[in-house]
Specification:
Layout (H helix, E strand, L loop, with lengths): L9 E4 L7 E2 L10 H4 L5 E8 L5 E8 L5 E10 L13 E5 L15 E4 L11 E4 L1 E6 L4 E5 L4 E5 L4 E4 L8 E9 L2 E8 L10 E4 L2 E4 L2 E14 L2 E4 L3 E2 L1 E3 L5 E6 L6 E4 L5 E2 L7 E6 L6 E11 L5 E8 L10 E4 L1 E4 L7 E9 L4 E11 L5 E4 L6 E7 L1
Parallel strand pairs: 19-24
Antiparallel strand pairs: 1-6, 2-5, 3-4, 3-6, 4-5, 7-9, 8-18, 9-12, 10-11, 13-14, 13-17, 15-16, 16-17, 17-18, 17-20, 21-32, 22-31, 23-30, 24-30, 25-29, 25-31, 25-32, 26-28, 26-30, 27-29
Length: about 375
C-alpha cells in the first residue's frame, strides 16, 4: 500500500456522512484517483462541499477498484479537525499537500533531554532530580509518527515528565508521544541494567518503540533512586539519542593524603567503592575517552605502582570495542616520586556501565600512593 503524490487529481462525489467516499469521475482537465494514485494506494486528500461550509483534509486510502476513497485519518476540518458528516450536494475531492507537511525536515528533532527545566546542556551537576525535560536545542520541532504518517509538532519552550513512580536504579527509555493532540513524554522500563524489555525498531529510518511505532525514541535515563535521576560528573544517567554532547566524567578521591598498598591484585583506588564513574547508554555508537592518574613512591628502585581503568570490572579490562592502557609509575631510584597516566577509550555496550579507577603494585614491596586531588583521579568525557 504505497503512499503517493500526484498532480491534478480531482474528482467529484455526492457521498454524505462520515464514511468512505464513492468517487464520481474526474473533473474536466484533471485526472482521476484511479489514474493518478491507483487502487490500494494512499495519499493526502481534501474534500470541499461546493455549496456548504464543509471541508476536510486527511490521509486516505484508494479502494479497489479505484472508485472509492476511505478517509483513514483526518488532519484538519471544518468540524474542529474531526471527521465531517457531509450533507447532500456535490463535493470536490482532490489530492493535496497538508500545511503541517510543508516544513522542511530531515527527521532529526531539535531538542535534548535534560534534568534542567531551562538548559538543554546543564553546566553543573544535577542530582536527585524528580522531572525529566525535553527542551529546544537547535529548534523546537519534532516529528511523531501517527501510525500512517509523520506529523510535525512544536514543543514550545519544552515539555516534561514527572519521574514519580519510577523504580530505583532502573534504566528507562524516553519517548515522544502525542497526548490530547500535543507532544508529551513517556517512559518504558528495561528488564535489567543491560537488557531492554521492549526492543526499538525503525520507521523510515527513525527509532521508535517496537509494537507501538507512535512512540518516538529520544534517549535513555537511569534512576539513581526511586522517582529520581542524576546527571553529574560521576553519574551520567541522562543519555540523548540526538544531539549528543561531550560531557565531563570525573572522580577524585579526596580522602587520605597518602596510603599504601602491597598487592598485585587490582583494587579500586584506596579500596574505596566510590572511586568510579557510571553512565547509561541507550544505543551503541557513543564514545568515552577517560584517563586516570597516580603519584607514587617505592622504597626499591625498579618497583612502583600501576594505575588503570577497569571497564565493568575491578581489573585491567577494556570495552569490547576500544582499548585500555595502564600507567606504570616505576621508581628509577629508591623512594623516587613518579607520576603515571592510564587511559581507556571505547564504545560501551548499551545499558548501565561502570568505569572503575583501579590500582596495584608492579611486582613486590609496598607502594605509597599520594592522593592529592591535583595528582590523582579519573577524568575524561562521555558522549551523551
Amino acid at each position: 500500500m504505497p503512499f503517493l503524490y500526484a498532480d491534478r487529481v480531482r474528482e467529484t462525489a455526492t457521498t454524505t456522512g462520515t464514511g468512505t467516499f464513492t468517487l464520481a469521475g474526474a473533473v474536466s482537465g484533471f485526472r482521476s484517483f484511479s489514474s493518478g494514485i491507483g487502487a490500494n494506494n494512499t495519499c493526502f486528500y481534501a474534500i470541499q462541499h461546493q455549496t456548504a461550509n464543509e471541508w476536510e483534509v486527511g490521509f486516505g486510502t484508494v479502494g479497489s477498484p479505484a472508485t472509492t476513497l476511505a478517509r483513514t485519518s483526518v488532519i484538519s476540518s471544518s468540524n474542529s479537525n474531526a471527521a465531517v458528516s457531509f450533507s447532500s450536494g456535490t463535493k470536490d475531492v482532490f489530492v493535496t499537500q497538508p500545511a503541517d507537511q510543508l516544513a522542511p525536515s530531515n527527521f532529526i528533532p531539535g531538542g535534548r533531554l535534560s534534568l534542567s527545566s531551562t538548559d538543554p546542556i546543564p553546566s553543573s551537576d544535577l542530582s536527585a532530580q524528580g522531572t525529566i525535560y525535553y527542551l529546544p536545542f537547535v529548534d523546537s520541532k519534532i516529528e511523531i509518527y501517527s501510525g500512517n504518517r509523520w506529523v510535525v509538532y512544536d514543543i514550545g519552550t519544552g515539555i516534561s515528565l514527572s519521574l514519580s513512580g519510577l523504580s530505583t536504579t532502573t534504566n528507562y527509555d524516553v519517548f515522544a508521544i502525542v497526548s490530547s493532540g500535543a507532544p508529551a513524554l513517556s517512559t518504558t522500563a528495561w528488564t535489567n541494567a543491560t537488557t531492554r524489555a521492549t526492543a526499538l525498531t525503525t520507521v523510515d529510518g527513525v527509532q521508535v518503540q517496537s509494537g507501538t511505532t507512535t512512540r518516538r525514541y529520544l534517549g535513555t535515563i537511569r534512576t539513581s533512586a526511586a522517582n529520581q535521576c542524576t546527571d553529574s560528573a560521576a553519574q551520567r544517567f541522562v543519555w540523548n539519542y540526538y544531539h549528543r554532547q561531550r560531557k565531563p566524567l570525573y572522580k577524585s578521591d579526596g580522602g587520605a593524603t597518602s596510603y599504601t598498598y602491597n598487592s598485585t591484585t587490582y583494587q579500586q583506588a584506596r579500596a574505596q567503592g566510590s572511586n568510579k564513574v557510571e553512565l547509561v547508554c541507550g544505543v551503541s555508537g557513543a564514545m568515552f575517552d577517560m584517563t586516570c592518574h597516580s603519584y607514587t613512591t617505592h622504597g626499591t628502585a625498579g618497583q612502583g605502582g600501576i594505575t588503570a581503568i577497569g571497564y565493568e570490572a575491578v581489573n585491567f579490562i577494556a570495552p569490547a570495542y576500544g582499548s585500555t592502557t595502564a600507567g606504570f609509575s616505576i621508581s628509577q631510584v629508591a623512594s623516587q616520586a613518579t607520576v603515571a597516566t592510564g587511559r581507556s577509550v571505547g564504545f560501551p555496550a548499551i545499558g548501565f556501565r561502570t568505569l572503575y579507577w583501579v590500582e596495584r603494585i608492579f611486582s613486590t614491596g609496598t607502594v605509597t600512593f599520594f592522593n592529592n586531588a591535583d595528582r590523582a583521579g579519573i577524568q575524561g568525557w562521555w558522549e551523551c
